[in-house]
């Protein structure tokens, strides 16, 4: 029995019941694939359902405000995905008359759609024989065929795409592609694969050579950047505060946050107070409190944010201040969202 047929047999017996499995609607498949990039199914599924409820079709998504899209995305991270999602919806509506392209090559022209997403949509929706290669597929192929080429190298990306093309099940590409991804997520899992009961164990090179925990191989990760964040949480007599929208490139583009002091080193109260004196006239108009004595370390893929929130109680009313009750309506990073929840519960 061929590699692809074993995957198909396994999938027919073990596939999970997921909301996007029962459709060929390219909008829904595209939405699920964008959400599930760098996100586990258990975390992504509620977001998928939430987006479908709010935006049943691509026209609804295209017509929504970016702020609403970012708010629904809040907590998933990698917010460029949400911005690309919104931009692509507009492109599909304005340039393709609301209909997704039905081929791999045309799908690649959409913003935020790369090889993997184009392959997934083309194969699942239109039965085009294009192999998907995501993290799960890399793992299955690397282990089964004993491939030690780094999966994130230029050579590795080309090699695994070619290998995936050679072994894919062309006659039922829709189920095969979903099957090999599911197989990698459940059977050939990253840390505790079920090798003993695996239908591929007799031909698995990694199992034979005791390389299961070694493969796949990745090149060295990008160096993690350390940043020191000091958030200034203003409170005026009417319990209003300030939020600013992040602009430009970098993390959290277009999300909202409290006024930020970023520093080379951690700031103490005296240093923060000195910065504040340059913002306001005199220090009699405010009282400064450190909300968290221990630094909050918020870890992103290539950055660690060492964060302290400073409460600034001011006796001067804030111009254009935002009511604390309205904070939940703004799309904010998880770091800010978690603080707002804790702050509301503990401070008042």
Automatic annotation (TrEMBL):
> What positions belong to coiled-coil segments?
none
Q: Tell me a Gene Ontology molecular-function term this record carries.
A: metal ion binding
Q: Which Pfam families match?
A: HHH, HhH-GPD, NUDIX_4
GO biological process: any one?
mismatch repair
Cofactor details (free text):
Binds 1 [4Fe-4S] cluster.
Which controlled-vocabulary keywords does the entry list? Answer: 4Fe-4S, DNA damage, DNA repair, Glycosidase, Hydrolase, Iron, Iron-sulfur, Metal-binding
Query: Which reaction is recorded as catalysed by this protein?
Result: Hydrolyzes free adenine bases from 7,8-dihydro-8-oxoguanine:adenine mismatched double-stranded DNA, leaving an apurinic site
Pinpoint the HhH-GPD domain residues: 35-186
Cite the NCBIfam families for this sequence. Answer: mutY
Entry protein name = Adenine DNA glycosylase
| Species annotation | Ulvibacterium marinum
Q: What is the lineage of its organism?
A: Bacteria, Pseudomonadati, Bacteroidota, Flavobacteriia, Flavobacteriales
């Amino acid at each position: 029995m061929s590699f692809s047929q074993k995957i198909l047999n396994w999938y027919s017996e073990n596939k999970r019941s997921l909301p996007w499995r029962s459709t060929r609607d390219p909008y829904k498949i595209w939405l699920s694939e964008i959400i599930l990039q760098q996100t586990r199914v258990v975390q992504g599924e509620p977001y998928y359902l939430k987006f479908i409820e709010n935006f049943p079709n691509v026209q609804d998504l295209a017509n929504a405000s970016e702020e609403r899209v970012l708010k629904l995305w809040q907590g998933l991270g990698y917010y460029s995905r949400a911005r690309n999602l919104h931009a692509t919806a507009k492109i599909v509506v304005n340039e393709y008359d609301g209909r997704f392209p039905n081929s791999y090559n045309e799908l690649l022209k959409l913003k935020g759609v790369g090889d993997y997403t184009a392959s997934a949509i083309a194969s699942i929706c239109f039965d085009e024989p294009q192999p998907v290669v995501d993290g799960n597929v890399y793992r299955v192929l690397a282990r089964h065929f004993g491939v030690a080429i780094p999966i994130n190298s230029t050579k590795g990306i080309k090699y695994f795409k070619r290998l995936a093309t050679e072994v894919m099940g062309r006659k039922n590409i829709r189920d095969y592609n979903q099957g090999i991804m599911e197989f990698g997520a459940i059977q050939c899992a990253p840390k505790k694969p079920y090798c003993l009961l695996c239908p591929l164990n007799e031909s698995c090179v990694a199992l034979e050579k005791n390389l299961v925990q070694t493969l796949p191989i990745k090149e060295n990760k990008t160096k993690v950047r350390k940043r020191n964040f000091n958030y200034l949480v203003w409170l005026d007599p009417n319990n209003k505060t300030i939020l600013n929208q992040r602009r430009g490139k970098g993390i959290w583009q277009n999300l909202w946050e409290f006024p930020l002091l970023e520093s080379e080193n951690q700031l103490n109260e005296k240093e923060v107070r000195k910065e504040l004196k340059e913002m306001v006239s005199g220090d009699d108009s405010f009282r400064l409190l450190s909300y968290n004595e221990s630094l909050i370390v918020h870890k992103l893929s290539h950055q660690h944010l060492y964060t302290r929130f400073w409460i600034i109680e001011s006796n001067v009313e804030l111009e254009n201040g935002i009511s604390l009750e309205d904070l939940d309506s703004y799309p904010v990073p998880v770091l800010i969202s978690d603080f707002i929840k804790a702050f509301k519960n503990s401070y008042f």
